[in-house]
Amino acid sequence: MATGATDSRDEVSEVNPEELGDLRLSEPAKAAAGFAAVRHSLKHALRESSFGRAASSWLGLNQKDGFDCPSCAWPDPDGHRAKTEFCENGAKAIASEAANKKRCDANFFRRWSVADLAAKSDHWHELQGRLTEPVVLRKGATHYEPISWDSAFRLVSDELNALDSPDEAVFYTSGRTVNEAAFLYQLFARMYGTNNLPDCSNMCHESSGAALKPTIGIGKGTVSLDDFEKAEAIFIFGQNPGTNHPRMLSSLQSAKRKGCRIVAVNPLREAGLLAFAHPQEARGLLGMATPLTSHFLQVRINGDMALLKGMQKAMLTEEENRPGEVVDHAFIEKRTTGFEEWKRELAAVSWEDIEKQSGLARDEIETAARVYWEADSVISCWAMGLTQHKTAVGGIQEIVNLHLLRGNVGKPGAGLCPVRGHSNVQGDRTMGIATNMPPAFLDALGKEFKFEPPREPGLDTVASIAAMRDGKAKVFFALGGNFLSASPDVEVVAAGLRRCRLSVQVSTKLNRSHLVTGKQALILPCLGRSEVDRDQFVTVENSMGIVHSSRGKLAPVSDALRSEPAIVCGVAKATLEANGDTSWDDFGKNYALVRARIEKVIPGFEDFERRVQEPGGFYLPNPAKNQVFADAEGKAPFSIHSLEPIALEKGQLILMTIRSHDQFNTTIYGMDDRYRGVRNERRVIFLNPEDMAEREIAAEQPVDVTSHWQGKKRRAQLFLAIPYEIPRGCAAAYFPETNVLVPLESTARVSKTPTSKSIVVTIEAA
Ligand code: SF4
User: Would you say the CB of residue 171 lies under 6 angstroms from ligand 1?
Assistant: First the structure.
């Protein structure tokens, strides 16, 4: 069984070995949800767990006395909540977590070697049920084998304490990690001696925080759900709510019914941007959809900044024609700086460049601008369509500029809304999961726990990968997630992980990061958010800055599971010699003790224990909601950025990575992408029909994709070409399959987010 003489693990595939399936295509959907959403939710729920367990999970999901959806970070209503306060995506996430028909237990790992598991697809991994006990992959072994919790903690501590420097360890966090676990984890890492705390936000929304903090003074959005009821116009940039944040569609529908105009800006005409058939309404179930967008701007990939500049130009021109009627001069005078200089710079940008880079005609842009200035209150939402470009921070700051022009921040029905993809990614950052927390946070942490936190900034995700690749980071610890598959440049990540002395994954289900490992590896299985954790509850923060409780309802799938806070405490206790007055045992048992310490360190958490138990929780302070912005006088600067078109050589396209509808981040629930009319296949690339004709590529023809970055090529082989309504020169394909194409060094300016939405590629017949 467990041990083999050779380290054949180096041979295992770091990429999903999926073979081409039996692709079936249909017309892309023109509306999201409807009865099909209910049917698919049921199908997924019953696939992996019993009916009783599935039903119980649904009854607790997103209820005030229940548990928070572990999928996206869209908020729940403050007031009345429906009995089924979740979407198809949430139902799939809970079905996946509640799985009790299969188990990845000792028998499973005895049967399957790491190499054999790596030869299976990501979707197959997802279907093997929950991890039920801690397992270790010893040096040179071919199979994982059981290990006790104490021995596992000792193994981690031995390896951490054997490092020459704490900075040789990396402590990664996935955005599903709850507040208490995140706070303890960063405390442990900093007491151990490093700020190497990369997180999944480094790969997605880092650009939003980096753009907002220096302008409006806080790296978070400024709206609440209530504002959606009051908005006169809503702009949605680079976001696909139908798949990624489906309950946002209810808010959009409600806004639309009140007369709000919705403008969608996206390279793909996603079903959820077009219309919504509410599955909790009889008409929705019958397929009668509410049209959502009044204007759809099918922008070129990486063309948003140009569009925004065009809208701003159109507004300033209108202001010249109707002085004082378009731009809010009182707001600009009182609440902003740098307007005149910004205006001068904007005047130098030509309409020709704007049209060329955005791929939109001037009159389309002027129409969008008119919708903007005719509304007294405007919300702009965005997601990864904006955050994963070299110029992402600038692009988002152009949205801020747009809002500053009419004072559309910090008033009812108006504001900025970065929509986060992972349920507690915002909360984790609030708790201190970051490589460069401000001095005030570190001071408070050190004072409360009587130690001197390290002050040198730590390694973010991209820098951590480089450090592992270069042999400078030797222990990799991941609190949740599927780091290998979520990261850019997968081959480099795999090489880095393989160089580590130890890799540790805290997980609920099997994934590829368990198979491409350090010389030794641990899988530490944790409770899911839906599962009962004795008499304890945990807390999370959603996309709109509301902190609330989450209390699991289901019986754990195994008695051997531990909660994330308990696992962190176990590792910390074993590793840190001098624990001072930090009682890890008590923290791991009683989360109220953790919350009491959070209250002392992080502003906004006063009276935490009482307030978080109020139904629905509480809002964190957000000065930007009161129009108090970044500079010393509380003003927001206008930001100046130049257009930077991506220079394409002949035959090159810009590729963006996207999710399918049967997918949440790297978790592959199924092989279909219902809204885009793709079934039974993930290895597809969406192309403009004219681009295909120019390259003599036929529909469904197998192609290879090559990315080009500073003279270096990366290849992803065997994708089926799908003619699709996408702007000329653009292409789209699913991640993680195409993450191999994203160069590690190609990152957004300032935020260092990988540029997964603007990969320069060529395609050739396979
Ligand atoms: S919108 Fe997001 S948080 Fe809400 S149920 Fe759906 S996946 Fe879960």
Answer: no
The DSSP code for 409 is S
Beta bridge partners of residue 478, listed in sequence order:
172, 505
Q: Rounded CA gap, 188 and 293, in Å?
A: 47
If you measure from the C-alpha of residue 542 to the centroid of ligand 1, how many angstroms do you get, rounded to a whole number?
A: 11
Residue 545 beta carbon below 6 angstroms from any ligand 1 atom? no
Q: What are 107-125's pLDDT values in tens digits?
A: 999 999 999 999 999 999 9
- Give bridge partners of residue 760 from the DSSP assignment: 654
CATH 3.40.50.1370 fits 207-418, yes or no: no
Q: How confident is the model at residue 720 (pLDDT cuts 50, 70, 90)?
A: very high
Architecture of the domain delimited by 653-765? Beta Barrel (2.40)
Ligand 1 centroid to Cα of residue 138, in Å, is: 38
Question: In sequence order, what are the residues at sequence separation of 6 or more whose Cβ sits closer than 8 angstroms to the Cβ of residue 330?
Answer: 407
From 231, 248, 239, select the one nearest 372 (Cα to Cα). Answer: 231
Q: Is the CB of 87 under 6 A from ligand 1?
A: yes
pLDDT band, residue 2 (cuts 50/70/90) = very low
- For helices 392-405 and 206-216, what crossing angle results, to 10°? 40
Beta strands 502-507 and 233-237 are unpaired
Is 37 touching ligand 1 by the criterion CB < 6 Å?
no
Task: Name the token pair of 284.
Answer: 């929705």
Average pLDDT for 22-41: 92
pLDDT tens by residue, 421-448: 888 999 999 999 999 999 999 999 999 9
Distance 41 CA to ligand 1 centre (A): 12
Confirm if 262 and 249 have CB atoms less than 8 A apart.
no
Q: Rounded distance, CA 607 to CA 499, Å?
A: 46
Per-residue model confidence as pLDDT tens digits over 293-312: 999 999 999 999 999 999 99
Distance 423 CA to ligand 1 centre (A): 8
Which residue, by CA, sits nearest to atom 7 of ligand 1? 90
Q: What pTM was estimated for this model as a whole?
A: 0.95
Summarize the confidence of residues 98-102 as an average pLDDT. 90
Q: What's the 246 CA to ligand 1 centre distance in angstroms?
A: 6
Round the CA-based radius of gyration of the chain to a whole number and report it: 25
| DSSP annotation of 686 | E
Q: Is the peptide bond before 689 cis (omega within 30 degrees of 0)?
A: no
Q: Which of 87, 244, 540 to mutate to test the pocket of ligand 1 (most atoms within 8 A of CB)?
A: 87
Rounded Cα distance between 89 and 664, Å, is: 8
Longest dimension (CA), the chain: 81
Nearest to 730 by CA among 658, 640, 631, 623: 658
Ranges of each domain in the chain: 207-418, 653-765
- Whether 550 lines ligand 1, by a CB cut-off of 6 Å, is no
Does ligand 1 have an atom closer than 6 angstroms to the CB of 198? no
The CB of 89 under 6 Å from ligand 1? The reply is yes
Mutate to test the pocket of ligand 1, among 69, 664, 669 (most ligand atoms within 8 A of CB): 69
- Measured CA to CA, the distance from residue 705 to residue 655 in angstroms comes to 10
CA distances from 85 to 74, 75, 722 (A): 12, 11, 35
What pLDDT band is residue 580 in, cutting at 50, 70 and 90?
low
- The rounded distance, in Å, linking the Cα atoms of 626 and 457 is 31
Q: Indicate if the pLDDT at residue 1 is higher than 50.
A: no
> How many whole angstroms from 564 Cα to the centroid of ligand 1?
22
Nearest protein CA to atom 5 of ligand 1, as residue: 86
Instruction: Dump pLDDT digits (tens) for 483-534.
Output: 999 999 999 999 999 999 999 999 999 999 999 999 999 999 999 999 999 9
Burial (0-12, 13-18, 19+ Cβ within 10 Å), 27: exposed
